[in-house]
């Protein structure tokens, strides 16, 4: 990894505290966020899910295949990676319980340019869930129900507060519209994700990502082998991507083929590949919904930084 010569901006800790005390939107966003967490948990418990505690360090984590810096810790002569997502642990978790979720803190050391996107933090939490033997349709439908349940309840319990920040927010209608990446590129060009988000007034599913654009664990579509059986959810009104997920690869040969296709080194996945080689992995599907982004969308805030205390914006250093 190349060295970063430029120094990131250090945020003054006292100024930060003063900002939290002066700007009421932090306090208000945290009330909504607390509601999102409680309602999502209630919804998933009602659906028969078991909550797992998050895994923070592991010998293996999501490769992500994006331009982020590696975060690793040397410990007794071995390397621990800081979790970028719990995808691998979820695939093992569903062998123990069929339906699982976790509020999983993820560290992704994004480039500082990402600070401008309005939706990137290097340290964030996703509600990550996985279901054994599920298809992507099942997870998309489940997430539609979860979003509708959460927004419906929040609009009832905190209508004045939400109206103050996001007066146009309404409960989305099921089923959400969907569009394939191929179709989206044809209609809107390379900037399709941004355009779809800005043009929409309801959330939209973006499906069938090109195989080379996503990680090895999202399942290749056998009927259309250049695409995956996966999905993203795009929030309306320009709030951008908020969920990603899909069906999973679980067969050893296919996983190896997919890791090689991404040009990744098989050795780094040995702990995972050993489990796959033994034939333990099972079909599953799942996804993750970013808690800060969900809060930002509901509150209609300009930047995710406003949705939590101690937010870590790419390129900045703070308490
Ligand atoms: N949580 C995502 C999923 O389940 C993976 C990710 O965060 N990269 O597909």
From TrEMBL:
Record-level Gene Ontology MF annotations: asparagine-tRNA ligase activity; ATP binding
Record's keyword terms, sorted: Aminoacyl-tRNA synthetase, ATP-binding, Ligase, Nucleotide-binding, Protein biosynthesis
Record domain Aminoacyl-transfer RNA synthetases class-II family profile: where: 99-314
Gene3D superfamilies (alphabetical): Bira Bifunctional Protein, Domain 2
InterPro entries found in the cross-reference section: Aa-tRNA-synt_II, aa-tRNA-synth_II, aa-tRNA-synth_II/BPL/LPL
A GO biological process held by the record: asparaginyl-tRNA aminoacylation
One Pfam match: tRNA-synt_2
Nucleotide-binding keyword on record: yes
EC nos: 6.1.1.22
The protein's name in its UniProt record: Asparagine-tRNA ligase
Source lineage: Bacteria, Thermotogati, Thermotogota, Thermotogae, Petrotogales
